[in-house]
Amino acid sequence: MYPIPYGGAEPVLLQIGDIALTGTHVLLPYGRYPLHGATWTIQDSTQITEGIPTVAIVLTIIFVWFCLLGLLFLLMKERRYLGFVTISVTGPGYHHTAQFPPGPQSSAWAAHAVAQARGITAMAY
């Protein structure tokens, strides 16, 4: 199926990255496609690592000579988020993926956005 030229008559109901939804169409960077029959998927490949930050090690080395309280800096923890959250839409003649950086709230936000997109898709005619 070929993309339909976008005239801009319908309001955008939901924007997910570079994917926009109207009441009847999916607007992608490379065209406008019918929303009916679209399938939405989400993949969360976030990895959370926790470790001692570099600044804590440096402060421990500096302050251990002045007082033994400098060892308390080793109790500092740093949480790092690696990976990404992917939202994909597939329909007749198109497939598009948008990736988002990981974070403490990104998985919940992406799940909510996909739930809204599925609701709009279910209402499409």
Fraction in helix: 10-25%
Briefly note the structural class of the backbone: alpha+beta
Number of discrete helical segments: 2
Radius of gyration: 23 Å
Query: Approximately what portion of the residues adopt beta-strand conformation?
Result: 35-45%
Overall residue-averaged pLDDT value:
87
- List the uncertain runs: none
Beta-strand segment tally? 9
Number of domains: 2
Instruction: Quote the distance from N terminus to C terminus.
Output: 17 Å
Main β-sheet, spatial strand arrangement:
1-2-3-4
What is the approximate shape? rod-shaped
Q: What is this entry, summarized?
A:
The chain crosses the membrane at residues 51-75. The chain has helices spanning 54-63, 106-123; strands spanning 14-16, 19-21, 25-28, 31-34, 39-44, 47-51, 78-82, 85-91, 94-100.
Walk me through what this model shows.
The chain is α+β, with helices and mostly antiparallel strands and 125 residues long. The protein folds into two domains: 1-46 and 83-125, no CATH class; 51-79, no CATH class. Helices cover 22% and strands 35% of the residues. It contains two helices and nine strands. It has helices at 54-63, 106-123, and strands at residues 14-16, 19-21, 25-28, 31-34, 39-44, 47-51, 78-82, 85-91, 94-100. It has a four-stranded antiparallel β-sheet, covered by helices on one side. Strands 5-8-9 form a three-stranded antiparallel β-sheet, with helices on one face. The two termini are 17 Å apart. The mean pLDDT is 87.
